[in-house]
Amino acid sequence: MDIAVLVKQVPDTYSERKLRDDGTLDRAAADAVIDEIDSRGVEIALQLTEQHGGEVTVVTMGPDRATETLRKALAMGAHQAVHVVDDGLAGSDALQTSAALAAALKTLTFDLVITGNEASDGKSGTVPAMLAERLGLPSVSSARAVSVDGSTLSAEKIVDGGYAEVTASLPAVLSVSEKIAEPRYPNFKGIMAAKKKPLTTLGIAELGLENTGGAAAPCQVVSSSPKPPREAGQKVTDDGTGGSQLAAFLAAERLI
Ligand SMILES: Cc1cc2nc3c(=O)[nH]c(=O)nc-3n(C[C@H](O)[C@H](O)[C@H](O)COP(=O)(O)OP(=O)(O)OC[C@H]3O[C@@H](n4cnc5c(N)ncnc54)[C@H](O)[C@@H]3O)c2cc1C
Q1: What DSSP string describes 25-50?
Q2: pLDDT per position as a tens digit, 33-67
Q3: Residue 140: pLDDT above 90?
Q4: What spacing in Å lies between the alpha carbon of 8 and ligand 1's midpoint?
Q5: What is the distance between the alpha carbons of residues 84 and 63, in angstroms, rounded to a whole number?
Q6: What number of other Cβ atoms are within 10 A of residue 189's Cβ?
Q7: Whose alpha carbon is nearest atom 39 of ligand 1?
């Protein structure tokens, strides 16, 4: 079974994340990493191909430096990579991103597409379903566990209060949750091998895309403002009434 995994390069959660005047993220200002949820997607793909045979192709859309994220996934064990890169894609919204990624996936043969259920920067959580729609495939989302038997995908999908067991016929689009497998760490051999693994780049012309980039994005940022600084917490001096003060505070916050 051949699996395509979407991996997004995102600003490191621990570095300062800034917006530019046009409301887009200043990606150069922050350290960039593979989105943690996508490294779990790569891990699941590797486990499934280790069980059932086949190859893992990792796919990203992003600026030149997103190659680092692809090399990280190749070092984990993915077999080849596809980089959707073109200056004309800068500032794309989720709709445009899903169009570009769907076009790139159509250049591949695959039995399963794996994505994260939500990117840690844009957080729209919409790309997986939009991809399934554009590819005309079933969509299984927020999986915490997954298995494949022949051409049937089975997953435990996280729902309020627990999980639901769902199945779909392959090919399908699967989005994973942060509860799924712990990603393996690339070893030195893997890092060296990654340098030689095939990496294809595709731009707007090769993918036949139209209406690309921020100016043409259906979703426009009209204004943005920095998050207000965190207010200092309430100080409680325990003169014997600390417990009841705390209970009153929690009740006022409707936490109890
Ligand atoms: C702070 C911020 C706010 C934004 N707000 C909006 C908004 O309100 N509306 C809007 O349309 N766009 C918005 N965007 C742009 C949006 O983030 C990008 O278009 C993005 O590529 C897709 O949306 P997402 O990050 O929400 O993806 P999600 O749908 O949350 O991503 C789910 C999964 O899809 C895959 N994926 C997503 N993007 C890529 C990629 N570029 N390459 C490879 N795999 C990918 C990953 O596996 C990811 O885990 C915002 C971006 C930022 C940084």
Answers
A1: B-GGGS-EEE-HHHHHHHHHHHHHHH
A2: 999 999 999 999 999 999 999 999 999 999 999 99
A3: yes
A4: 8
A5: 8
A6: 9
A7: 8
- Please name the amino acid found at residue 139: S
Q: Report how far residue 199's alpha carbon sits from residue 71's, in angstroms, rounded to the nearest whole number.
A: 9
Report phi then psi at 27, rounded to 5.
Answer: -65, -30
| CA 121 – ligand 1 centroid, Å | 7
- The model carries a pTM of 0.91
Q: Output DSSP code: residue 215.
A: G
For ligand 1, the distance from its centroid to the CA atom of residue 162, given in whole angstroms, is 26
User: Is the pLDDT assigned to residue 16 strictly greater than 80?
Assistant: no
Q: How far is the CA of 52 from the centre of ligand 1 (A)?
A: 31
Pocket test for ligand 1, best of 13, 17, 42, 97 (most atoms within 8 A of CB): 97
| CA end-to-end span of the chain | 50
Fold that domain 3-224 belongs to in CATH: Rossmann fold (3.40.50)
* Domain boundaries of the chain, sorted by first residue: 3-224
Which amino acids bring their CB within 6 angstroms of ligand 1?
Answer: 6-8, 25, 35, 37-38, 60-62, 92-95, 97, 101, 115-116, 118-119, 121-128, 219
The pair of three-digit structure tokens given for residue 159, joined into one six-digit string: 């729902």
Q: How confident is the model at residue 230 (pLDDT cuts 50, 70, 90)?
A: confident
User: For all residues of the chain together, what is the average pLDDT?
Assistant: 94
Which ligand 1 atom is at minimum distance from the Cα of 130? 29
